[in-house]
What we know:
Chain A has 86 residues and is of the alpha+beta class. Chain A has helices spanning 2-9, 21-36, 49-53, 78-85, and strands spanning 11-16, 41-46, 62-65, 68-72. Chain B starts with a helix and ends with a helix.
Amino acid sequence: MAINKEVAMSKTIKILGTGCPKCQSLTGVVKDVVSENNIDATIEKVEDIMEIMKYNVMTTPALVIDDVITIKGRVPSKEEVLALLN
Amino acid sequence: MFDWLQHFADWLIYSVFGIGAETHLGTALNFFVFDTLKILILLFFIVFIMGIVNAYFPIERLKDYLNKKKLYGLEYFFASVFGAITPFCSCSSVPLFIGFVQGGIPLGVTFAFLITSPLVNEVAVAMFLGMFGIKATLIYAFSGILLGSVGGWLLGKLKLEHLLSDWVKEILENKMQQAAYQDEKRSFRDRLPEISRGAWDIVKGVLLYVIIGIAIGAAMHGYVPENFFNQYLGGGQWWTVPLAVLVAVPMYANAAGIVPVIQVFVAKGVPLGTAIAFMMATVGLSIPEATLLKKVMSLKLIAIFFGVVTLCIIISGYLFNLIL
């Protein structure tokens, strides 16, 4: 039971951004939250602009969790990211 | 408004450090402490206010507004105003550009936004306010908006759509389905800590540039002789404005670092119009921006874009020198 639940909880996190300082600090925040809370998730950085535009965001960085855009254009706090991941 | 700050600077330098007010070092340090603190306070408040404005008018809503309303030619002006009030991060320029054209906003209107966005930004406004006062700041902001409107309108008239990159043209033809804009659901009070954190982050980010800029400015104040530039740049020779602009275009300087230096130039005899034109060319156009835009448009279009904006800045430089 416990194992099944964990598999279902595994998340795909994508960080959209062309590599500006804000995008890097978002990546840092997300990585910290994932490792500090032992969250089962894969983090992927999307830096190609054509790929980013498929998500229809106008301001970077953007945080995509399981293909849903949750944050765009700003760097959230750790607490906010944790809330989004739970 | 900043009397208390002057008292603090006087107290710190003359009493605590015991450096005399009559010494060169004393006045320079006093000037440095006062200016740095004043600018940082102004910067924090302006970025904070912009953050609040932006929380109410997110970019997606502005785009919808430009798209749906019939504005009878005023759309260039509105796009330019929106460019001024939205905080600009150079790495967002490409997604913004695509988002606008994808949403059906004409290329010229998109350019109006793209010109003003880096030109009139919160850091530039705060620095101008701190170093030149309210009148010069209003002139700078207003002329930046006007310049974006005129430049965007001109570029729109030139019908340059065929010079966009192929994949952007494809987006234009297919008019991809737009995701509906979702309003932020959190209350203003929930967002306030985030807005002030954002303002603080920006202040921290430019802190070093402010300090270096003001330090260079303070040093120049003491060592560049009075009216030094009059001989070379202040005599009203016709070529000074284009020269200042052409030197500044490829340069990429943070507004925070460049304004204190410009202030010294003005104090030593460079006309304010020439200085504003120089400033606009520095923050408005740069090589890094051209590199980013390369992804969405051909080199030819970038060259036309830069050419038109440069020309507009030069013309406005002449205008300022005439009226100021």
